[in-house]
């Protein structure tokens, strides 16, 4: 029942109720939540997964839609979905942290354009890292693991008992710290070489005060940065895979522990 004398088909209401958690995860999760993904595609995917959940789980939605109990249940479902997607989105911020460190040291921090994945302005190097992380995420079936985690979450957190605890919110906050740590480690190979270059340029400026640092230091930093990126990118790609695995494991531990 909708309330106020209105009615709705129980099957349709069950599908819509399940779509809340799935849709909330798709809103915040990378790839699914990208600006380039049309809204009808997200709704269609959420509906298809909702049918899958109803086929494998016994979900009993609240009997009356317009009631306090239903509003609280909807808020709980949305919080679970948002938490799952947020953890992965936090992991995708690690390459942006690395790009800020590397780009600032290389002198290309001003090179920024609109990121097609999130619709915001970001550094060109950060977009490059984000695209590579997205491709790696898809290559290891991270999107399928996310869908599987959302479906399995109905076993650990069934509707009506899906409230997130303070410990779970604390895990999300701690994982945010891991994103900064991962970004620093991702930028470490190139950043260390650029730091050494800055030390050399600083000693040259002390030895030859008349030397134009902008004419020498900026081209040298750009050349060393590009060469270092080309050499270190295989290792950076391997560490991006570690970031993806850590994010997926954190999402699973959040709801399946």
Automatic annotation (TrEMBL):
It is found in: Cell membrane; Bacterial flagellum basal body. It comes from the Bacteria. It holds the Pfam family Bac_export_1. Its main location: membrane. GO terms for cellular component: bacterial-type flagellum basal body; plasma membrane. Keywords: Bacterial flagellum, Cell membrane, Cell projection, Cilium, Flagellum, Membrane, Transmembrane, Transmembrane helix. The keyword Lyase does not apply. The chain crosses the membrane at residues 12-33, 39-57, 64-86, 92-112, 124-146, 178-201, 213-233. GO terms for biological process: bacterial-type flagellum assembly; protein targeting. It is a multi-pass membrane protein. Belongs to the FliR/MopE/SpaR family. Role in flagellar biosynthesis. This is Flagellar biosynthetic protein FliR. It comes from Sphingomonas carotinifaciens.
């Amino acid at each position: 029942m909708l309330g106020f004398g209105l009615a709705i088909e129980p099957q349709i209401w069950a599908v819509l109720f399940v779509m809340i958690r799935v849709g909330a995860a798709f809103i915040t999760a990378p790839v699914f939540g990208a600006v380039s993904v049309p809204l009808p595609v997200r709704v269609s995917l959420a509906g298809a997964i909702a049918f899958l959940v109803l086929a494998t789980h016994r979900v009993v939605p609240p009997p009356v839609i317009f009631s306090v109990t239903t509003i609280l249940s909807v808020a709980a479902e949305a919080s679970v979905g948002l938490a799952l997607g947020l953890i992965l989105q936090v992991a995708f911020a690690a390459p942006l942290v690395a790009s800020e460190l590397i780009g600032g040291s290389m002198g290309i921090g001003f090179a920024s354009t609109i990121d097609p994945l999130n619709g915001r302005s970001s550094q060109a190097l950060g977009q490059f890292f984000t695209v590579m992380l997205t491709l790696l995420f898809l290559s290891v079936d991270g999107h399928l693991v996310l869908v599987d985690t959302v479906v399995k979450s109905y076993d650990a957190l069934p509707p009506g008992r899906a409230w997130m605890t303070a410990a779970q919110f604390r895990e999300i906050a701690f994982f945010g710290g891991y994103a900064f740590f991962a970004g620093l480690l991702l930028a470490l190979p190139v950043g260390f070489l650029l730091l050494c270059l800055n030390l050399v340029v600083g000693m040259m400026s002390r030895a030859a005060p008349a030397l134009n640092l902008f004419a020498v230091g900026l081209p040298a930093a750009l050349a060393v940065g590009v060469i270092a990126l080309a050499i270190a990118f295989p290792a950076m790609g391997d560490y991006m895979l570690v970031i993806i695995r850590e994010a997926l494991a954190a999402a699973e531990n959040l709801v399946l522990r």
